[in-house]
């Protein structure tokens, strides 16, 4: 699988987080389209199918990521 350049991943993560912080999903047509585009691109470059999984995958692909820390993916214990 091809890997996106870390600078591209950081930029996409930043754009996605900014759009979400600004509640783009509830905004105008342009904001919603931009959020959808960034979400789609994150999914494509990480080989995932939803934005949450794409964010996790993108962060794990960044240099210095603790790739053995998958606690966010683990099922909660009772």
Structure write-up:
- This protein has a domain at 7-59.
- The chain contains three helices and no strands.
- By secondary structure, it is mainly α.
- Helices cover 58% and strands 0% of the residues.
- The model has no long low-confidence stretch (mean pLDDT 85).
- α1 runs antiparallel to α2 (29-46).
- The radius of gyration is 14 Å and the shape is elongated.
- InterPro entries: DUF5133.
- Pfam families: DUF5133.
- This is DUF5133 domain-containing protein.
- It comes from Streptomyces albidoflavus.
Using brief descriptors, characterize the structure shown.
single chain, 78 residues, mainly alpha, 3 helices, elongated
In short:
This protein has 78 residues and is mainly α. It contains 3 helices and no strands.
């Amino acid at each position: 699988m091809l890997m996106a350049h870390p600078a591209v991943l950081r930029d996409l993560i930043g754009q996605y987080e900014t759009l979400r912080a600004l509640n783009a999903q509830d905004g105008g047509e342009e904001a919603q389209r931009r959020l959808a585009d960034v979400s789609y691109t994150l999914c494509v470059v990480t080989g995932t199918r939803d934005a949450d999984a794409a964010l996790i995958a993108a962060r794990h692909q960044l240099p210095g990521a603790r790739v053995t820390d998958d606690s966010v993916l683990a099922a909660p214990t009772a």
